Amino acid sequence: MAVYNLGSINADLVYRVPHLPTAGETLASVSYTRGLGGKGANMSVAAARAAARVVHIGAVGADGAWAVERLLEYGVDTRAISVVAEPTGHAIIAVDDAGENLILLYPGANQAIPEADILSALNGAGPEDTFLLQNETNAGRFAACTASALGLRVAYAAAPFEADAVAAVMPLLDLLVVNAVEAAQLEQATGLGPSDLPVRDVVVTLGADGCRWYNTDTGEAQHFAAIPVTAVDTTGAGDTFTGYLVAGLDRGMPMAQAITLAQRAAAIMVTRAGAADVIPDLKDLEDARFS
């Protein structure tokens, strides 16, 4: 069993500022940090920390060796990460004292993953494995078609939301994960609510209200209440949830058990500031005491 994740790899460049800059303003930052980010990298780290074998399929530039090394340190198989001519993707993030932020995203190498490298990465994968993708890379439809033809379970986190991207992979999906805003956008684009989509399992995350799982084969829906915690930073919480959910399913857990595991991980994640570098592991979940 393994999770093959076609996903973005970003450098998160975070600047603390006294206030968010306005047009034409030059503003000195109070501090600067560089961390590993990107929805794909976050999900790979989360799945690996949930004890799944994870193969990350992606790309960095010549400047991205540190990001690959960081993924490897977190237990992710990095042999399917290509080095391409484009610079590594990055996000420039300004955060003020009130916690408001401004983000500039440069996709870079994330949009230059060679299809031949995707084929090579999936060589040997089969029905016991899971394929995961999001919307921050190129070749999503190509990779999903390849994985589906090989018999892998295909899971998709439809973020950042793009109606055309969702439509392109919808017929190939076994699992769809969206948040409430994305679910509404998808219904507006397709005219179909979560229970009517042509995907067997649909999970809609609801933030502080928990999540809802729709089994479209049986027509049943089950609500899972959120775990009450005091949130410090919600960055990466949804990615952590998805990574843990996919890892649990890949390890053979029933859906309800995998969702419960994922919720515990996401609850811990929102109490920490950061992205991939602070995603909890299974020991953190075991040690956690929720009220």
TrEMBL record:
Binding site for substrate: N10, A11, D12, G38, K39, G40, A41, N42, E136, D239
Required co-factors: Mg(2+)
Entry's localization field: Cytoplasm
EC code: 2.7.1.15
GO terms (BP aspect): D-ribose catabolic process
SUPFAM superfamilies: Ribokinase-like
InterPro entries the UniProt entry points to: PfkB_dom, Ribo/fructo_kinase, Ribokinase, Ribokinase-like
Molecular functions per Gene Ontology: ATP binding; metal ion binding; ribokinase activity
Gene Ontology CC annotation, any one: cytoplasm
Subunit structure: Homodimer.
Protein family according to the UniProt entry: Belongs to the carbohydrate kinase PfkB family. Ribokinase subfamily.
Protein name, UniProt field: Ribokinase
Organism: Puniceibacterium antarcticum
Lineage: Bacteria, Pseudomonadati, Pseudomonadota, Alphaproteobacteria, Rhodobacterales
